[in-house]
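Dear colleague,

Thank you for sharing your sequence with our group. We've completed the structure prediction you requested, and as agreed, I am returning the results in plain text so they can be pasted directly into your records. Please verify that the sequence below matches your submission; if there's any discrepancy, let me know and we will rerun it promptly.
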Amino acid sequence: MEELSYLLYISVICVTAIATAAYIVFFISQNKGARKIARAILTASGILQSLYIVSRYLLAGYTPITSQHEAVIFFAWATTWAYLSFRWRYTVKNFGTFVSVLIFCLVIISSLSAREVTPLLPALQSLWLPVHAGVSIIAYGFLSLAFCGGLMYLLQDRELKSKKFGFFFERFPSLDSLDQLNSHCITAGFVFLTLGIVTGSVWARQAWGTYWQWDPKETWSLITWFLYLVQIHQRFTVGWRGKRAAIMAVIGFLSVIFTLWGVTYLLGGVHSYGG
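Please find the predicted structure tokens below.
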């Protein structure tokens, strides 16, 4: 099983790289055939990621989401399937190129952490583990889509304001489409992020006798939640859209990244077992 798991992981890296290359070819050539091939290969990558996670589960005997390697792979998996589910309902021109690059970066980052399967710490031996951690990282998957959409919005906005319609202008969707994408992805991500915080609080009450300890990761999760709450509130109350919303999507995602990695390596706390 260990050898099969390793082969699946290598396959994930290779297939994701091919999918990313295919999307870049499509972005440059705008050949619709290349786009269909790229989407099919990314779907294959998503399936391989799922199989790899299952293999890790069979090896470890628990939900493989406790180490940095596992968390990042789960992050890549969540982003892949969030995009594919989004693409099933909506079409945003060349969005897949940016998302595939992000997914490939996550897969490569996962290779920098140890792959060894370690015994589960007593504090993590709970049915709340797959619920809390899984829901939280699914939220990160949708918020990563908003991040990609925010970057595309800012690049397109810059092209329009410079009045020099170059390489990106004809390949990017309209600003309105990107703004709608931002709204849908952040709303979905915020719902899952809220569920992640709630389930984490319930688990903390069960494990430590208190709903909240102001642990660094708990604190930064709350900061991230407030950043997205502010954006959603401003969008639906005062019409906070466009460039401002795109900038907030990028800032919010940077907070997500710091919550996932920065806190573990820089601030420590009871949630730093993943390091």
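Summary note from our side: Helices lie at 2-29, 32-60, 68-89, 95-110, 128-162, 175-208, 216-238, 242-267.

Kind regards,
the structure core
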